Amino acid sequence: MRGNRGYVGRSIPRDDAADKVTGAALYTSDLAPPGTLHAALLVSPHAAARIVRVDASAACAASGVRAVLTGDDLDVRLGLYLRDKRILARDVVRYQGEPVAAAAADTPETARAACDRIRIVYDPIPPVLDPRDALAADAPLVHPDLGSYDRMHGVFFPVAGTNIAHHQVIRVGDVDAALDAADVRVVGSFFNPPVPHVPMETHAAIARALPGRRFDVWTSSQSPYTVRHLLSVALGVPHAAIRVRVPFVGGGFGGKAGLHLEPLACVLSRAAGGRPVKVVATREQEFNTLPSRQALHSTIEIGADRDGTITALRADYVWDAGAYADYGVNIGRAAAYAGAGPYRVPACRIDSRVVYTNKPFGTAFRGFGHLEVLWGVERTIDMLAARLGADPVALRRANLLRPGDRTITGELVTAGHGDPRGCLDAVCERIGWARPPDTPANPQTARGRGVAVLHKAPAMPTHTACAAVIQLDEDGAANVLVSGVDYGQGTYTVLRQIAADELRLPIERVRIAWECDTEFSPYDWQTVASRFAYMGGNAIIEAAADCLAQLRATAALALGVEADRIVCDAGSAYPRDEPERAIPYSRLSLGYTFENGNSVGGPVIGRGRAIATGLTHLDPQTGQGLPAQFWTYGAHAVELDVDTETGEIEIRRFVTALDAGRVLNPKLAAGQVVGGVVQGLGSTLLEGFQFDDAGRLRNPSFVDSKIPTAKDLPASIEPVFLETPQPGGPYGARGIAEHPMISVPSAIGNALYDALGIDFTELPLTAERVLSAIRAKRSGR
Amino acid sequence: MMRVSIAVNGVRESADIPAGLTLLEFLRERLSLTGTKEGCGIGECGACTVLLDGAPVTSCLVLAVECDGRDVRTIEGEAVGGELSDLQRAFIETGAVQCGYCTPGMIMSARGLLRRRSDPTNDEIVEAIAGNLCRCTGYEAVLAAVRLAAKRRREAADEG
Lengths: 781, 160
Prior knowledge:
The structure holds two protein chains of two kinds.
Chain A: H1 17-22, E1 37-43, E2 49-55, H2 57-61, E3 65-70, E4 92-93, E5 99-105, H3 108-116, E6 119-124, H4 131-134, E7 164-172, H5 175-181, E8 184-192, E9 204-210, E10 214-219, H6 224-235, E11 242-246, H7 262-271, E12 277-280, H8 283-288, E13 295-304, E14 310-322, H9 328-337, E15 347-356, H10 370-388, H11 392-399, H12 420-431, E16 445-456, E17 465-472, E18 478-481, H13 491-503, E19 510-512, E20 516-517, H14 532-559, E21 566-569, E22 572-575, E23 583-584, E24 592-593, E25 599-600, E26 605-611, E27 632-643, E28 649-659, H15 666-686, E29 717-722, H16 744-756, H17 767-778
Parallel strand pairs in A: 1-12, 10-11, 14-15, 18-19, 28-29
Antiparallel strand pairs in A: 1-5, 2-4, 2-6, 3-5, 7-15, 8-13, 9-10, 9-12, 11-20, 13-14, 16-27, 17-18, 17-26, 21-22, 22-23, 24-25, 27-28
Helix pairs in contact in A: 10-16, 13-14, 15-16
Chain B: E1 2-8, E2 11-17, H1 23-30, E3 49-52, E4 55-58, E5 71-73, H2 86-94, H3 103-116, H4 122-129, H5 140-159
Parallel strand pairs in B: 1-5
Antiparallel strand pairs in B: 1-2, 3-4, 3-5
């Protein structure tokens, strides 16, 4: 671990705060290049239907309409891992809300009116809505051509002739024998509904088709280079023909990774003769047309010895991909290799199947499947504790991974992995687990406590890479270029802290370029998986070292000493022990000029790189391999009250501990925890899509799809950080952005069991659901 | 088309506008005041909150013609002479900003409260921003920011 030179570890205020509190920060939806046209979408009213006839003539003829496109105009397939999707539906529609046509016009109203004039005749077909039904041998196929789709080979395994987009297996030991031999077996079935991301800025993209099949794109995206790459594949043009710019982004949570409205904006602009086209999702489209978190049906069985030692875990995860695979297949993969929780499990069998249905499709969502699988795993662990008459904390402590253990993919756990037991101990100490909670004064109130642990590693390709460039300005200040996106996490601020410490510059003299631009910003894979501070931090450390080497070389020439004698400190370079001879960076950053005019050196530009190291693909038959660059462990403890007459839950205290490796910025880290826990509370208590029998989304608005407001906060949320240094992490740090929301439902579900003696298995835990369970228990059902 | 004259951040803006134009569209599209954000367009998220004659409104639900002769304050009017306002400083200090998209609306709702109540209770603060949705911060730092700004006002008033 590196020493602290001053900024890393301090609560430096956000780099972007002033722009944001003044309204100066420009988001994609605020932009409009000259001549910008506005787009509108026509979406499918059916969950599944054949498109019989399309007539867009009336729309094309309307005044002010510059382009109208339907699926018939666009013969391309898109997709991250499986190319299963079209820009606009063609021949069939696969979910209600799927775009089938689009218009670009002088005003948004004209574009909407044009869409209203497009006539589409559908022949509805019965939708497949439950992924468990979709697994039946005679189930209708959402993608009859699945076997012929292009895909990423060696990692994902769609099953042709079925609705299975990916089947991930984990096989360790003889699970059946271990379960048969177990003293105790518990089994539970669980459900997580689809949940929308709800970024406050809806998806937005602007594209301008240029001569020579080139495209200029502005987009509210987490992934400028991934957008460029996928656009290049979709549009059949070289990467260099596409320029992607990402201005400020109003929240992402995974929903703005991948490719969304960008290709539509590109083809509309091309159809409109090159005028820029702006596509902004309405809030309803954000719920119903853009992807969400996929639903999960899980069944988990755990076997243990009488003393509480877990001997086997068997899990069946059925993911509701919805109509398209998108990130869903990778969630099915990543959540499988994390699908036994952070426990030592000597025999394990996991089948994680990502299944197509006729519903809005799933994508990455903060936590990437881990909140979902750990809802079931952590509830089942508490069910095991109840069966054994054991303390849930002691049971977890005894089974949590320790150095020397192997994960279910065969990875050897070391002390550098972090300290899950320490996280659990920390939250128990804070919540006062050793003492029972006070008895509530109101007899109508049931009080309970629960704990849950969590783990997650970045789900990323084995070759994930990141670069940083630092150029020193004329005045010796530093300009840091990266293309990972800060859409609120605060990463740019911590990267600035790292750069300032590494460059030995006051932080005021280090800036980070806010708008990512594939034309100028160095490569980064994409901003997902809580790996940007880790990889971007490492790339910046290397780039800063490169800058210092150049500064030292130039200073050595200027001072007539060997370069290895030069030290850099406080924005100056000088020979060791001779600080009086210091030359400020401002006289070195473009090269040094002697009194007679001779010049040496040149502009200082540092380059840094980082790449995933040591990762392997998982064995297709066993799931064995090394998928994780690092693991972040954590734990929650909660104390809550349930009103047994209304079913309402009041969170009295919520404590979260994460082993961050090193806290780079305490205030920003705490902000991630509070925000993540509240988002997790939304998933626990409020959120979830509801569909009617025909597969139409019933709650595509804030009226019917509540997210937490300022009125829904717990009495307290207490972040705790452990700092077990991560080998290879910048300053020992590991990622923490997704983790706070993982296992929030589990902790609350466990506390509800403690309060009520009822095992909840389905989310969300609305007052209605809790009350009906209380009444069912009272009436002995 | 209707002729309106609206005082926006103290500057009189006259324009001929269609009757259906919302105040949000007037601000963003006619005046290029893009600090006011659209989050839903139907008054459910609070991102477009501005002050109309000192009271917070969701500008997506107000017609610009209703504002004729009235006073509108937006986020662009918060900082005066390049100096951040008390609320803006407090939002930065408490870490109340993440993606920032809800921030202008949050600040305007809080401003509406502080204009009305110099010493608001915590419940009043919660109530004042309960209509402003935020998906990033979990609200705690936002509430702390409004409390901090209110406390500093009280202290300044006591000293004065």
